[in-house]
Structures are given as C-alpha cells and as structure tokens.
Amino acid sequence: MRATILTSPGSIELQTVPDPQLTTDSDAVVRVVASCICGSDLWPYRGLDGDQSEPRRIGHEFVGVVEQVGRAVGSVQPGDFVIAPFLYSDNTCALCERGVHTSCVNGGGYEGCQCELVRVPQADGTLVRVPGGEPDEALVPHLLTLSDVFPTGHHAAVSAGVRSGSTVAVVGDGAVGLSAILAAKRLGASTVVAMSRHAERQEIARVFGADAIVETRGKEGAAEVREITGGIGADAVLECVGTGDSLKQAFMSTRPGGMVGYVGLPHDAAFDPRGNFYRNIGLAGGVAPVRRYLDELLPDVLDSVIEPGRVFDLMLDLDEVADGYRAMDERQATKVLLTP
Amino acid sequence: MRATILTSPGSIELQTVPDPQLTTDSDAVVRVVASCICGSDLWPYRGLDGDQSEPRRIGHEFVGVVEQVGRAVGSVQPGDFVIAPFLYSDNTCALCERGVHTSCVNGGGYEGCQCELVRVPQADGTLVRVPGGEPDEALVPHLLTLSDVFPTGHHAAVSAGVRSGSTVAVVGDGAVGLSAILAAKRLGASTVVAMSRHAERQEIARVFGADAIVETRGKEGAAEVREITGGIGADAVLECVGTGDSLKQAFMSTRPGGMVGYVGLPHDAAFDPRGNFYRNIGLAGGVAPVRRYLDELLPDVLDSVIEPGRVFDLMLDLDEVADGYRAMDERQATKVLLTP
C-alpha cells in the first residue's frame, strides 16, 4: 500500500510499504476513507520532536471501512464504516472506566494512518461504528473530525468546566481552537470570545458561534476579554496552542476562580503557579480521551446539529500529501483532508 | 489594647497600640475571644516574605464578640459571637457571587488579629453570626478553625473534586493537611491516604478519618499511594505545603485524569505542565474563599459532626504569643491557639 513517510524533517514522501496484517485476535484492519494532517504532525515535520534520524510513518486521524477483524472482535465487522480515535484503548480498564482512555493500560498509537490501510489493535474498545454503512460523502469530513480535532476542542471545554451560561475565551484559532469554539457553544456557553487575527479563521469562528473576536494579545487582549465578560474575565479559557505565551495569555484572560482547559501540547510552557494561586485559577486538560466522548458527539454530527468538518479548507489526494504539509506549515491551510 | 507585632524576623512582641475605631458605616469592631497562629505567619517570622524592614501587626484568624457596628451594618449586632473569615469581603460583588470571596472587589485583610480588638470592614458581608450567643468554651477551638484552617483544607478537597467514593491522598501533615483529611472524609471520600512522618500528627490524621498512612516520599511514596488506590493513584491529591517538592509529590501521586487541589502558597514551585498534560492531571485551588463555605460547614461544627479544633495542640495566653511562634517554628506545636 501507499503510506506517508517523514524521511527527515521537512521531507514528506509517499512510499510503498507492506499491507498491515492482523497480528492478534483483537485487531482489525481498516481501509482508510479519509485521513488528515494534525497541527501536532508539524512538530516532527519542523524537526522539533527530539531525535529524528530515522524515517517514520506519520498520521493518527482517520475514518474508514473495516476490512478484516480478528476472531475476538465482536463490535465491528467487515464493511462497517468506523471512526478511529487517534489512540487505541481497550475501553474496559480502570482508567478507561474513569474516562481517561489516553492512559489505557492496553492502549497506544497506530503505526501511521496517512495511508491506505491501518491495523487497529483493541478494535472492540477503539472503533466506533457509524450506523447505516458508508455515509454520504458530504458527511465524511465531519465524521473525520471525530477522530481527534473536534473531541480535542470539546475536551478543552469539558476540562474548563464549560456549561450553560459560561463565558468563554479561546486562545488559538487553528483547527483545534475553532473546534473549541463550536464545542463551547454546543455545551451552552453564553459568550464565546475568539482570539484571532486571521480574517478567514475569524469567519469560521463566527460560523461556529463566536460572539466576539479579539485581535489584540498580551495584557491588551486580556483587557478586551475582561471588558466583554462583565469586567472580570472569562469563566473558562480554552488554551489550544501550547506555548508559554499562549498559556500566559489564557491565565491572564481568566476571571478569579475560573478555569483554563488546555489541549495544546506544552512546549516551553513552564510557569510559576503563585499568581494563579492568589486568583484561584485552575488548569486542567491534556491529551483528549476521544473515545470517551464519541457516544455523545456522534449523534450530533449524524443529525447535522454541528458541522465540525468546516475546519477543513484544503482537500487533497493522498498522492499530494507533501503539498498538504507545506500548506499547513506555511499557514496557507488550517486543516488538510487526505483521500487515498 | 495589646497587639502582636513582628518587630523584625524572629522577633515577636506584644505591644500596646490604640484601640481600633469604626471608620466607615459598614465596619464592625470585634473583641477577640480566640485567635491563632497560621503556618503562613511563619514565612515573615522566618524573614522569607520580601522587604521586612518595618515592624508590622500580624495574625488573620479569629472568633469573637461584636462590640460596635457602623450604622449600615444589619446582619450582626453588639453581643453576637462571630466567625471572621481571614479576609473580609462584601459577599455581593460579581466575584463573591461566583464564590471567589478572596478576590472581592471591596475585600482585603485585617490589620492583625493576634490582639484584643479588630476592626472588620464590610462587616455584613464578612462576619458569620453563631446562633445562641457566646458558645460553650469547648466549642471555641472548633469554631476558630472556621476562620481559616478548616475551610482551607475543605477548599483543597473541593478544588480537587472530592466526592462520595473518591480516593484521596493528602501531601502535608500540618494543620491544613490534617484539616484536608477531615474535609475529604466529610465529603465522602472512600479512601484517604495521609502522607506523614510524625507519630503525633499521624494520630490526629487517624482520628480525622485517614485510612492509611504513607511515610515515604518521592517515587517510593507515590508508589505506595498507587498500591493503596487500586494500582492507579489517587483520584484527588490535596497539596497542603506549597513547595516545588510537595507539588511534584502531589502530581506523582495522582492517577491519570485526576486532580490536585492546592492550598499551600507556592514557594519556588514553578513546573513544566508537559508531564501532567500526557496524564491529564489538573491543578486547581488557591487562597481559600472561606466565607463561601461557612454556611455549609458551621452547622456540622455546631452539631459536633466534625471536631476540626483537634488540630490545636498548644493553648496559650496572648501574653505568651512569642512562645507560640517559637513552638510552631521549631515544629513543637502543630497549631497554637491564643486567648487574649
């Protein structure tokens, strides 16, 4: 099959590799219908991910059709259209039971999924069947977001305690930040402030329900957020970038007693909690336990209550994957969908 | 009146100062029945609190009897026995409404309360009347803990989301840590692990409901906590010290997806959130908004459901206040009660 290889930083190649095989009774093999490029794929693409001397497969978000299942697999069968959370998990261990599927004792990551076929371990615990067989083509991008980016935005909102009536600010206008806006509105936020400087992303933010846009940053940006939120700051701030600056921006924009939900993998983001201590500002979040949220989110996508796939602004054939990385690296695209 | 003055680090003197007066219509003057020494008073006592070139009044926890009230005060009157949260607040502003009385827009601290009389601004919003007039002497220590130490332990538990069935570990066996144990059990924790090396404090921990004691620290201590909590770590860890080491101990002892509630003012506690991110471990808490909790906690003290005053192991006359500081500084006492 064809598979995307990061041969060295900045160099993406589509190569022919052996088809994956079932290796245990609980595996499935899934034919990829659509995959995409994640902001986090850009870290190794940019050479910022530790030792990168070896070529590696890449990609972790996909939807597809089950091709084969191991003998122990009962919840999906060949022909099922499935969503694959970006990490696999057994959905039964003590940590899955507590909703932290990302820390599943039998969990892990795929070998890569910007390709044609993926072996999915723990298929019963991982794959979520979409009822009704292969869906309408127009629905595929929305379903694809359920493998990572939309539940990640949702996780930021849940971690920050967003509920009916909450005031919310979102730091970061990438695909995750935009998803967080949609998730916050879905959870009933009364006011969502998008912090964004890009006209096109502001437009999606508005479509997703943002009530206000703040273009300034730093103290000025935090002051604008305060002004919009009754003079006190947002109840919940969703940090969707992962740098020291963005985390600081989030803390500054939160009201005393409020909460920051963070889903951007922290890079150089060490901080002294003393300032937050005086203001009772909390921090929660992390790698999104996607599987936990799918039973709640999938129906809203199937019923077109939400259209999270609007974050995709570039659709490419898998053959063009290198162009996709370039476009995201150069910020010409927010999120790239790949069709094998 | 007599009042405690920290004349310079390590030097506590009882001096005569002018009696406080009503300065606004919303003030009250309260005659102190009992006050106490807080762990946080030891920071300036030890010279670790910035510029300390000037002598200063000290103390912030007390209960007493109202002597005088300003014309606008309606909720308390002379003769009432009251609990004074360690910060005053109006109990009506947008932040008080959201339960963050410590960030009240009209709030602040007292001039000191290890003395005989205290002026309490925002008396209506701050003071909580104990029904039935001056209480039985045996009840006074328990009521006194409601001004700071017990609600602070409670705030750690609330911030960490402790509820019925939670597994909890408490880092720190000072008066706040012990209070946190009692608070966690009161909220329904199924298992509370006290991390303590002091036999006498372990005994209070047991009385307060601790189910297990862990004497080791670092990785070994975290491993012991994991072993007690089904192999995964505690749902909630209550950090009641405030150093970098204690915060690290708390993070290590928390299960993936769990929460650290912290109430020890952080000193040299900067940290990189990346490790917590992968494990979805959150951090919340801060300066305890005592006033928020008193309506809930006071009835349990009056009904002797809880006896938080057992943290006091040294009762002194106000004249002996310098001995009290010495005893706490040298860890000969856990918490000192002072009677004017």
From TrEMBL, chains A, B:
Keywords from the named record: Metal-binding, Oxidoreductase, Zinc
Residue ranges occupied by any Enoyl reductase (ER) domain in the UniProt entry: 7-338
Keyword Nucleus belongs to the record: no
CDD domains: FDH_like_ADH3
Protein origin, superkingdom: Bacteria
Cofactor(s) for this UniProt protein: Zn(2+)
UniProt keyword Nucleotide-binding present: no
A Pfam family annotated for this UniProt entry: ADH_N
Xref: PROSITE patterns: ADH_ZINC (PS00059)
GO MF: oxidoreductase activity; zinc ion binding
Family to which this protein belongs: Belongs to the zinc-containing alcohol dehydrogenase family.
Protein name: Zinc-dependent alcohol dehydrogenase family protein
Originating species: Aeromicrobium piscarium
Lineage of source species: Bacteria, Bacillati, Actinomycetota, Actinomycetes, Propionibacteriales
